[in-house]
Every structure is written in structure tokens, then in C-alpha cells.
TrEMBL record:
Occurrences of domain EAL (ranges): 388-640
SUPFAM superfamilies the record matches: EAL domain-like, GAF domain-like, Nucleotide cyclase
Alphabetized PROSITE patterns for the sequence: EAL, GGDEF
Protein name (database record): EAL domain-containing protein
Limits of the GGDEF domain: 248-380
InterPro entries in the cross-refs: Cyclic-di-GMP_PDE-like, EAL_dom, EAL_sf, GAF, GAF-like_dom_sf, GGDEF_dom, Nucleotide_cyclase, Rev_trsase/Diguanyl_cyclase
Pfam families associated with the record: EAL, GAF_2, GGDEF
Length: 640
């Protein structure tokens, strides 16, 4: 509480009697005493009284405090009498009112009082009181002869009484102030001690915070799981290293564990984390002390090796491959996980740390797409990056500029050669870039988040088109729509489809949703829930590109799909490749066994058509039956 407020509170407490002043301990200062002496002398002279006194009472007795310097005054300062002996003054104090006895001898109530012994038979006294109502004593005039004090003398006595009471009030106030000051001082003292303690606590807290900040700084620079530096700290170390070593060669290898998400999904995050730690340890074990090593993303790492020649490079690459390919034993699981790498070199590819990482990362992306274990950054990689950037910047406005549209490719029932549906395929026609195939821009849209907007456009357009065609071709005709994992991951995807069906008034049976294994890999629980929901309200779900992922068969047991689409790569090779022929046969047989319809994709030749028919595949889709075309052309070709 601030000083002023505190004082106010104390004063307030005082007003209401909370401040405890002990009046018996208030001393009358000398100058006041002298004033009182003069007052008494004056009064005695005016009234012509042998004794005018100021008496002071205590808990046990009453004594002469000031006595007039008058002749024949029998009272001396400090003369005292114990209480209870019937002194005039005691009664005045008790009643807190004036007592006027003209002749005690004639008054049976007073004829025994102690003053008579001193010859004083007339008395007139008034109480003196502290402001808190505790008694100080009296002021009184006494006479040795009968005396009726006149009204004016009594008033005079009252004046003096008031004057002394005012003095007492002043003393009281002073002592009250002293008391308040004392309390304040104590409080200040207390506050000072408290402040000292607080400041001690603060210093401790600051120290603790500094420790935390230090550890935050650590976590800002290091990855908690593996203890490796993170991207930022790697860039700063590499920058220092490059500044020191140019033009000596430095090799940057960006590497990632493929499909690491599926490890997390299949075995759980604890196993996933352990695997990352073990992998880190393996890599660390063969790195030299001047090699920088960091974890830059989930399952992505980067190393920078200074003074690295091509032999060193090959050795490093092989060691990383071996680190990932050697089985990991975690709990009861034995796991192998392939990795892919991208390599960039300083100073030839760049002399800038961030750029080197970016280029090595881009080369790794190419390894990922090609399925090769490693890729060196080249001019072509650079071109690909630039092209991707170019595409991406144009794609941003594609939708609003009306550059996106849908084509429809028919699929046929192989038993009766009738068209039973169409797959909606996205087309992007840009005035500068021309026709950009979906394979090139869909993954870009997935990366920058545009896929939601684009996917919605596809859903609205295709469902609206299907509703139109349903009127013309109500029997067993359906539209198949490709859904990106990013869209499917949304937990309200099924509800969104349900709303669109009712918006366009399309029966659920006229819609098929095509998903790929990527969806199942990313979040099994959401996927399972969404698939079930879609099927519950009658939408078919088909597994696209079947056979290209490496755990396809296990998914067939976990999820119930309505349709299986055999990937084009098997069909293409049917005539030449015995193994693909056998695989296609097996897929068709499995599909049938699990009560699914099977579609063969990419049928281009009569021989392929003959083969799938002989294996009793249900449906066929491919250039042989019909290429993707606009809605108008589709309608003209198949519905007339
Ligand atoms: P997909 O879902 O496997 O679609 C079939 C692709 O194979 C289409 O390529 C189609 O034109 C092509 N195709 C069909 N029959 C034949 C054939 O006999 N021979 C050959 N060589 N190709 C054939 P497209 O239209 O270029 O689409 C490529 C991929 O892009 C699609 O593969 C699909 O994954 C994706 N895609 C297309 N439209 C969409 C879409 O609206 N949303 C999403 N998320 N993905 C889409
Ligand atoms: Ca498809
Ligand atoms: Ca496909």
C-alpha cells in the first residue's frame, strides 16, 4: 500500500477508535506545564482562592499535578491520595461533571473527605479529559472557608478547563501522530524486509529463467529426439565452414527415410522415434569429427563433409545406405527402411549453405520420385526446380482464371461392352504453359495447400455433371472422382460429400470415390472412419493404382473397398512380362475373392483386352475403349 494510502487508513482506523493510545504514558511537556502553572496562578488570583489545582488520576490514585503558587496553599506537587477515599476530585472524574461544594462540613456526604484535614471545606472542580474520553484528572479551586462560587467564577473555571482540555487534545494528537509514524516506520521496515526477500526471490527467478532460456536456446538449435543440430544451426555452422574452406570441396548430402510415416502408423510413434535415434547413432558412428550432421525434418537429415573427393562421397553414400538397410530390431519388431539421398557440392553448385541444403533436398526429391537411392544435383535438377516454381506461381491463379476443367474417361463392363461410368480427370490449360498434365501439378497443389480449393472445384463440377447425366442415363452409371490424401484427411470429408450429393440431387450410388494407398498410409483411423461413412450412405470407394504400393495386400484385409483398380503398369506389360501377367491374374482373383469389382486401367491393345476378359476382370478403362474427353464429347459419344 502506498505511504499516503496507508496513513489514511491508519487515520481512518483512528477515527473509529482502532488506534490504541495509552494516555497514561503521555507526558506533559515543560512549556505546557509552565503554561498551566501560570493559568492556575492567574485563576487563583482572580478567584482569590488559596488553592487552585490540576489533579491527575491514575488507575490507583490521584495526585497533585500543578498547584497554584498561593499563600496558604497546603497542596504540593505530587501529593497523592489513593482512590476510594472520597476525594472531591474522584467524584468529578467518576461523574465527568462539575462538583460544587460550598461547605463540606455542612454536607453529610462530604464532611469526611480527606481535604477537610487540610482545612479545605469549599470546592468547585471540573473534569479534565483526553479526547478519547479517558480521564486526565481535574481542575479545581478550593477554599478554607464556606464559599458559594459565583456563576462567573465557575464559567471562568470552565474556560480554563477547555483550555487545558485543548492542550490535552493537542498532546493526544501529537502522540497519535507519533504512534502512526511508528506504525508506518514499522511497516516500512517490514516492507523493506519483504522487498529484500522479494528481490532475493527475483534474483533466483531470473537465474532460473536464464537456465531455462539457455535450454530453450539449446532446443532452438538442437533436436530433442536425436540431440543433433537442427536446420538453422546446421546452416550457421556450414556457413562458417564454407567461409573458412573455400575453394576446398564440401559435399552436402540430404537424406530421408522413405515412407517413414507408415512406420509410425504401423508400429507407433515410440518405435518410430527409437528408429530415428538408432539410425542417427549408426550414421554418427562413421562420420569424421569435422563432418556436420543435422536432423532437418521428421525423417530427413543432412550432412556436410568438408574436403570431400569423389571416393569419400561414394563411401559416405554407401555407409548411409547400409545404415538404413541393415535391419533395426526394436521391441519385437525387425524393421528395414530404405532411404533416398540428394547430393550437392560446394563450390560448384553453390557457395551458400542454405542454397546447398535446398539443392541437395531437391535432388533427394528426384530420388524419391525415381525410386533411386541417390541423385546428384545437376543442371537438370535446377531446371526441374525452376519449372516447378514457374508452374506453382501460375497455378495460384489457374482456378480463378478459369483454366481448370474436367475431362471424362469411360470405363466399360467387359461382359456386355456397355459404358458403366466415367472417371473425372482434371485438366489445366494455361495460355503460356499450354496443357499441363495433372501428374505435374497435383502434387504441387498438395504441397502448397491449393488442393483443397482445386479438389472442391472437381467435386462440384463432377457431381453437377453426374446429376445431369443421371437424368439421361439413370441405370448403373457412375462418376469416379480422384481424391487427394490432403482432402481425405479432413475428418468431415464424408459429410462434405453427403452435402454435395443432396445439393446436386445425385443418388449416392452414382458416385465413386477413388483413393490411393497414400491416404491409408497417412492416417489409418481417419481413413477407415471416412471410408465406412461414405459406404454407409451408399457411395462406392475404390482403391486406385493398386499394386504399386508395397503393402497393398494388407490394406485389402483392413478396409472394405467396392472396387480395385489394377494399375496401368501391370496391364501395359501383360504381353511381354510373365511376372506382370501373373500378378494381374492374382489381383483379379483376390478382388473377386474379397467381393470387389476389379477395373483394369490403361488398356490400350486388343491383346490386353483379351487377357483381362479371359481372367474375368469386371471392367476395363483405357485408350482402347475411350480417351478422356470433355463432357460434351462424352455425352455425344456414349449417350446417343
Ligand atoms: P489416375 O487416377 O490413375 O488416372 C488415370 C490416368 O491414366 C489418367 O491420366 C488417364 O488419362 C491415363 N490413362 C487412362 N487410360 C490410359 C491408357 O490407355 N494409356 C495411357 N497411357 N494412359 C491412360 P491423367 O488424366 O494424366 O491423370 C493422371 C493422374 O492425375 C491420375 O491418375 C490421378 O492420379 C491424377 N488426377 C487426375 N485428375 C485428378 C483429380 O481431379 N484429383 C486428383 N486428386 N488427382 C487427379
Ligand atoms: Ca484414378
Ligand atoms: Ca489409376
Amino acid at each position: 500500500m502506498p505511504y499516503k494510502a496507508e496513513l489514511k487508513k491508519l487515520q481512518y482506523d483512528h477515527l473509529f477508535g482502532h488506534v490504541d493510545i495509552n494516555t497514561s504514558q503521555i507526558d506533559v511537556p515543560d512549556d505546557m506545564f509552565n503554561g498551566w502553572q501560570k493559568t492556575l496562578d492567574l485563576l487563583a488570583e482572580i478567584v482569590d482562592s488559596p488553592a487552585v489545582l490540576i489533579m491527575k488520576v491514575t488507575a490507583t490514585d490521584i495526585s497533585v499535578f500543578t498547584t497554584s503558587n498561593t499563600q496558604g496553599n497546603p497542596y504540593n506537587r505530587h501529593d497523592s491520595e489513593v482512590l476510594g477515599n472520597g476525594l472531591y476530585c474522584e467524584t468529578v472524574i467518576k461523574n465527568q461533571s462539575e462538583l460544587h461544594i460550598p461547605n463540606a462540613l455542612k454536607d453529610p456526604e462530604w464532611d469526611q473527605n480527606p481535604d477537610i484535614k487540610l482545612g479545605m471545606i469549599a470546592y468547585c472542580g471540573l473534569p479534565l479529559t483526553w479526547p478519547d474520553k479517558t480521564p486526565f484528572g481535574t481542575i479545581c479551586m478550593l477554599d478554607n472557608q464556606e464559599r458559594e462560587y459565583s456563576q462567573s467564577y465557575r464559567q471562568l473555571l470552565e474556560r480554563f478547563q477547555n483550555g487545558i482540555n485543548a492542550n490535552l487534545a493537542h498532546l493526544y494528537q501529537q502522540s497519535e501522530l507519533q504512534y502512526l509514524n511508528q506504525i508506518l516506520e514499522n511497516n516500512v521496515q517490514k516492507r523493506t524486509t519483504e522487498l529484500a526477500k522479494l528481490s532475493e526471490k527475483l534474483i533466483k527467478e531470473i537465474e532460473e529463467r536464464r537456465v531455462i532460456e539457455d535450454s530453450v536456446d539449446y532446443y532452438k538449435s538442437y533436436d530433442a529426439l536425436t540431440g543433433l543440430p537442427n536446420r538453422l544451426s546446421f546452416i550457421s555452422s556450414l556457413t562458417q565452414q564454407l567461409n573458412a574452406s573455400i575453394p576446398a570441396n564440401t559435399t552436402v548430402i540430404y537424406f530421408g527415410l522413405r515412407n517413414f510415416k507408415s512406420i509410425n502408423n504401423s508400429y507407433g510413434y515410440v518405435v518410430g522415434d527409437k528408429l530415428l535415434q538408432l539410425f542417427t547413432q549408426r550414421v554418427q558412428s562413421f562420420l569424421s569429427s569435422d563432418t556436420l550432421f543435422a536432423r532437418v525434418a521428421g525423417a530427413e537429415f543432412v550432412i556436410a563433409q568438408p574436403k570431400c573427393d569423389s571416393t569419400d562421397e561414394i563411401q559416405l553414400i554407401n555407409q548411409i545406405i547400409t545404415s538404413s538397410n541393415t535391419p533395426f530390431t526394436i521391441a519385437e519388431f525387425t524393421i528395414t527402411i530404405p532411404c533416398c539421398m540428394g547430393i550437392a557440392q560446394a563450390p560448384s553448385d553453390s557457395e551458400n549453405a542454405a542454397e546447398l541444403i535446398q539443392k541437395a533436398g531437391a535432388a533427394m526429391d528426384i530420388s524419391k520420385v525415381n525410386g533411386s537411392p541417390y541423385t546428384f544435383f545437376t543442371k537438370q535438377t535446377q531446371l526441374n526446380i525452376e519449372q516447378r516454381y514457374h508452374l506453382e506461381s501460375n497455378l495460384v491463379d489457374a482456378l480463378k482464371n478459369g483454366e481448370l476443367s474436367l475431362n471424362y474417361q469411360p470405363f466399360f463392363c467387359l461382359k456386355n461392352n456397355k459404358v458403366i461410368g466415367a472417371e473425372a480427370l482434371l485438366r489445366w490449360n494455361n495460355p503460356i504453359l499450354g496443357n499441363v498434365p495433372p501428374d505435374q501439378f497435383i502434387n504441387l497443389a498438395e504441397r502448397n495447400g491449393q488442393i483443397n480449393e482445386i479438389g472442391n472445384f472437381v467435386l462440384h463440377t463432377a457431381i453437377a455433371q453426374a446429376a445431369k447425366w443421371f437424368v439421361i442415363q439413370p441405370q448403373n452409371f457412375r462418376i469416379a472422382i480422384n481424391i487427394s490424401p490432403v482432402q481425405f484427411r479432413n475428418s468431415s470429408f464424408a459429410e462434405h460429400i453427403e452435402n454435395l450429393l443432396s445439393l446436386y440431387n445425385l443418388p449416392a450410388s452414382a458416385l465413386e470415390i477413388e483413393i490411393t494407398e497414400g491416404i491409408l498410409l497417412q492416417d489409418e483411423h481417419v481413413a477407415q472412419h471416412t471410408i465406412k461413412k461414405l459406404q454407409q450412405f451408399g457411395v462406392r470407394v475404390s482403391l486406385d493404382d493398386f499394386g504399386t504400393g508395397y503393402s497393398s495386400l494388407s490394406y485389402l484385409q483392413k478396409y472394405s473397398f467396392n472396387t480395385l483398380k489394377i494399375d496401368r503398369c501391370f496391364i501395359t506389360n501383360i504381353e511381354k512380362n510373365e511376372q506382370d501377367r501373373e500378378l494381374s491374374k492374382a489381383i483379379i482373383a483376390i478382388g473377386k475373392k474379397l467381393d470387389m469389382h476389379v477395373i483394369a486401367e490403361g488398356v490400350e491393345t486388343q491383346a490386353q483386352d483379351d487377357f483381362i476378359k479371359s481372367e474375368e476382370c469386371d471392367y476395363g478403362q483405357g485408350y482402347l475403349y475411350g480417351k478422356p474427353v470433355t463432357a460434351d464429347l462424352f455425352e455425344k459419344s456414349y449417350f446417343s
